[in-house]
Design goal:
Helix content: under 10%
Shape: elongated
Radius of gyration: 14 Å
Number of helices: 0
Number of strands: 11
Structural class: mainly beta
Largest sheet: 7 strands, mixed
Strand content: over 45%
Length: 122
């Protein structure tokens, strides 16, 4: 039983900031890459940012310089700090993680959160 729960979504004016958080819980042995995706109305789900354990971060060109992804391995959480928000950032944001559950011999699981809505007004 492994799950991800997002929080922090809401309504923000253009130019404002918002911080999303995601907490993993359950029978977790370790977590490899954690990431944030988003899906706008009528569009495909896209990768926004990713942060491997001990690795370098990745950002989509559309958010580079505005968003910052971070993680707390001790708490099994990942956050996305979003600054200088634009109406184009409006979407449902999903947390994603590659998790090795207990027992570790079971293998690698790809887990998705339920999503949190971010709405940016112009």
């Amino acid at each position: 039983q492994v799950q991800l729960v997002e929080s922090g979504g809401g309504l923000v004016q253009a130019g404002g900031s918002l911080r999303l958080s995601c907490a993993a819980s359950g029978s977790i042995f370790s977590i490899n890459t954690m990431a944030w995706y988003r899906q706008a109305p009528g569009k495909q789900r896209e990768l926004v940012a990713a942060i491997p354990r001990g690795g370098s971060t990745y950002y989509a060109d559309s958010v580079k310089g505005r968003f910052t992804i971070s993680r707390d391995n001790a708490k099994n959480t990942v956050s996305l700090q979003m600054n200088s928000l634009k109406p184009e950032d409006t979407a449902v944001y999903y947390c994603n993680a590659q998790i090795i559950s207990r027992p570790s011999t079971v293998g690698l699981l790809e887990v998705w959160g339920q999503g949190t809505l971010v709405t940016i007004s112009s």
